[in-house]
Amino acid sequence: MSINPFWMTNRLSLFPESTRARGDSLFVAGHSLASLADGRLTPLYVYDRATLDLAVAEYQSALRAYYPGESHITYAGKAFLCKAIAAWTQTHDLMVDCTGEGEIGIAVAGGVPREKILVHGVNKSTADLKSAFREAGTIVVDNLTELNNIHVILSEAKNPHSVEQDSSIAPAGLPQSDISLWLRLLPGVAVSTHHAHTQTGQHDSKFGMTREEIIEAAKFCQENNLPLNGIHFHQGSNFRDPEPLIPAIDLALDIAKEIGFNGEWHFCPGGGWGVAYHEDELPNPSIESYARGIAEAVIEGCKKRGLDLPVLHLEPGRSLVARAGVALYRVGAIKQRGAKIWILTDGGMADNPRFALYGARYSCLPVEGLNREINAKVSIAGPYCESGDIVIEDLPMPELKEGELIAIPVAGAYHLSMSSNYNGARRPEVLILDEGKVEVMLSRETVDDLLRRDP
Question: Which of 45, 145, 334, 448 has the largest CB neighbor count within 10 A?
Fold first, then answer.
């Protein structure tokens, strides 16, 4: 097979915005990926700040163009969160979606103020709720049990002498207006994704409340003077067609009308807008069409029902951060088994379990030697003791050599946040790149880190 410039252009377009092929080598933000890996252990992850900034700018521009009311963008902490990313969100005035005490703690350490922290979670623990009351501005309530627990915590905070007070619940005398509650709706409509495990809105999902439960929850809030002022739903992750959002938006607006929301209220129709992981999935889904479709549905739906326009929140999820990240692996052994060629690398399911979880598809380029001819389809796998430790299957590639570097694009979301210490793996070093500047966002774990929890 000869190299095809069109094929190369498509594969390169999966990489961060600042990626360039100079000579026959890959550069991101002006930095040679080969030079970045020189002297560093791999796997190594790099993030391009320009790509992060561009994605936010696209969402902000679309919301300004199509939504006349107040709007906010929420960064999904579960996609990837560290102190540096938390600090970056505040350069764009983003809200940060945190699932539980751990992510809340990272967001706070990264300088995210209370009013910008929104707390999710399908089964929040007492510790999660206590952390939310200390550090967050909004709790998205998933179920009636959780709502009752919130009521207990607020009652104890307002009446510290009624029980033996636990000072970690909330600051003494915390007023209810200090935090907002949104109710999470189960719309009963899923979006189309590549795997059932990335769908969240269908009738049998574990997430959220039915319409009847939402009405019961709203009544409970009204009877107990709880600070309810929003509705949230989420239908799935990495979808491309916004059409299934429309009936869910209509259902949510019907409920908002029944509850009696008026004045300032908040509405979040979720997120999870998709990105291309493989050249076969190009072009990337349009951010503008996604934001426009939601904005128009909310505007028309509110007009039809006589509702005030809500503060609109979008949760873009991976579409903010996935394309900004690149994973660098070093080739070890190469095996041929019949027609199958295995490229074994030092990265795999410990730093990226998405193939094992979802059968996710990826693409790849050699870091150097881009002008080589494509001569075979290869499968790329990691060093771990699992047959599912695969990153890529049957991808056209040039002949690779032991010891060379490969670069896997669209590695910015749900790799590092889902990473593990399986087989004693140590989580990789993570860099963020600007033109002329390299910063370490996360240090590589050591054996001492693995032993730190041992008594």
Answer: 45
